[in-house]
Write a structure and sequence with these properties.
- This protein is α+β, with helices and mostly antiparallel strands.
- It folds into two domains: 194 residues, no CATH class; 73 residues, Alpha-Beta Plaits (2-Layer Sandwich), CATH 3.30.70.120.
- 60% of the residues lie in helices and 10% in strands.
- The protein is built from eleven helices and four strands, in the order αααααααααβαββαβ.
- It has a four-stranded antiparallel sheet, with helices on one face.
- Helix 1 runs antiparallel to helix 6 and helix 2 packs parallel to helix 8.
- It starts with 13 loop residues before the first helix and ends in a 13-residue tail after the last strand.
- The mean pLDDT is 88.
- Keywords: Cell membrane, Membrane, Transmembrane, Transmembrane helix.
- It is a multi-pass membrane protein.
- This is DUF2179 domain-containing protein.
- It comes from Hornefia porci.
Length: 299
């Protein structure tokens, strides 16, 4: 049995590329505007400290205002903090990915300084929940458009893609330091409410962005060549073929085993059922993966 394996995809036309880039710019611009609104109307209203470099920037701004009487612009603090992450992005993640991430970082910083605060509510718990939801959606929008929100997003993606290291524990440790300093200087109620804000943000990201999650795919089929072609062409992942015998009808069965990205599963299952409507598909959550796993290259 010979499997065809991967076949090259048709290259995008110039018009399709232009539309894709225009969409990226529009979505990232909307995310930057939403980020500025969220920081001014929710985060600043409740004196919260979001995670990552944004929280660090707000901590520095509020400390200098409280103890030195200097009101620093958000962009004057946030942009310098992103110099090293941008360097990592240029070196490890690709120029286009870094460019769009820089675009978001600069635009959101400038808009944060330019847009006046419009408080929606003064209820801190509501601000934590809805501000966290908005913050999570902002990050997801950037990730969907193959960009990042800067700061710790750069660092976590570099460690995950290049070193296979889940940076969550390191980012969490950095957030703990920020929250402890915030609690000491501005009161522990602000720090504790900020934990709710960060928790909501994390839940939104984990539920809506699954590129870095893996699933184990087990397919029992009578059309292994066609099923493998779908897996190989659509996901660029390989598969292993097992041959066995079904107990009930005592007929020869083919079982295909593969590991794919969680974001690829719905499309792939649909395509497999198109070529083999009787295929039995079992999808399992993959907790840990050791070995080569194809990651879509960044531009």
């Amino acid at each position: 049995m010979k499997f065809r394996g991967k076949t090259p995809k048709e290259p995008l036309t110039r018009k399709q590329k232009l539309r894709r880039e225009l969409l990226r710019i529009l979505v990232i611009s909307a995310a930057a505007l939403l980020s500025a609104f969220n920081l001014n109307s929710f985060v600043d209203t409740a004196d919260l400290f979001p995670g990552g470099f944004s929280g660090a920037a707000l901590l520095i701004i509020r400390l200098t205002d409280k103890y030195l009487g200097l009101k620093l612009a958000y962009s004057a603090v946030f942009l310098p903090l992103n110099v090293f992450p941008i360097y990592l992005g240029l070196r490890y993640l690709g120029k286009k990915f870094t460019f769009y991430s820089m675009y978001f970082t600069i635009l959101s910083s400038v808009l944060t300084d330019a847009i006046p605060a419009i408080p929606i509510t003064y209820d801190v718990l509501l601000i934590c929940i809805f501000g966290g939801l908005i913050n999570g959606m902002i990050i997801v929008l950037c990730l969907w458009m193959d960009a990042s929100g800067g700061g710790t997003d750069f660092i976590s993606i570099v460690l995950l893609e290049r070193k296979g290291i889940n940076a969550w524990n390191y980012i969490l440790a950095g957030n703990v330091v920020i929250l402890c300093l915030a609690g000491i200087f501005f009161g522990w109620d602000k720090a504790l409410y900020s934990i709710i804000f960060q928790f909501v943000t994390t839940q939104v990201i984990q539920n809506l962005f699954k590129r870095y999650n893996q699933l184990t795919l087990i397919v029992i089929t009578d059309m292994p060549e066609s099923v493998y072609d779908k897996i190989s062409i659509l996901t660029h992942h390989d598969a292993t073929l097992f041959r066995g015998e079904g107990f009930f009808k005592e007929t020869t069965k083919h079982m295909i085993y593969s590991v794919i990205g969680a974001d690829q599963a719905p499309m792939l299952i649909r395509e497999i059922h198109e070529v083999d409507p009787h295929a039995f598909i079992n999808v399992l959550k993959t907790e840990r993966l050791a070995g080569h796993f194809y990651s879509r290259p960044r531009e």
